[in-house]
């Protein structure tokens, strides 16, 4: 990544000093706010691909996506942790997807009191149909960045995820049974 110019660094320092003097936080320069807003907007843009055509809402998509990338069934708690979605929201999404026969419960072989979740054949077909559409939408969203900027962006996101001790790939998530 190119280093910030001295004029950019000076402007950042002026902005920080002004915020301290005013005792106000400019939300539009506050990274957590910007990331949250960006995530919500990207999520909304992707939902266009699965809402109207497939009748899925965002929590239902998160359940479908999590079960789709896994090789084995998993708990609703895992999905909630993986997607950072409240467990009651995931529970409602699972119930809806079960009614539509997209998700099914299976007994946990290690603990017969616990049920795990997996995609039905219908759910797996839906997942496979959606993936190319969502990958195209992702490329559309990122098209404002050059190839190098996309690589840099992915690397920077990885650094932030690493600093927060977040799992960054499917194999590690499967092995850890948590995100």
Can you give me a brief rundown of this structure?
It is built from 8 helices and 2 strands. By secondary structure, it is mostly helical.
Any overview of this molecule?
By secondary structure, the protein is mainly alpha-helical. It has a domain at 28-144: Winged helix-like DNA-binding domain superfamily/Winged helix DNA-binding domain (Arc Repressor Mutant, subunit A), CATH 1.10.10.10. The protein is 67% helix and 6% strand. A two-stranded antiparallel sheet has the order 1-2. A hairpin with a 7-residue loop joins β1 (103-107) and β2 (115-119). α3 (58-69) packs across α4 (76-83), α3 (58-69) crosses α5 (87-99) and α4 (76-83) crosses α5. The longest helix has 24 residues, at 31-54. The protein is elongated, with a radius of gyration of 20 Å.
Strand content: 5-15%
**What is the strand tally?**
2
What is the number of helices?
Answer: 8
Mean pLDDT: 88
Helicity range: 55-70%
Strand pairing plus helix content: what structural class? mainly alpha
Give the low-pLDDT segments: none
CA radius of gyration: 20 Å
> What is the element string, with H for helices and E for strands?
HHHHHEEHHH
Q: In this structure, how is the largest beta sheet organized?
A: 2 strands, antiparallel
State the CATH topology of the domain at 28-144: Arc Repressor Mutant, subunit A
Shape: elongated
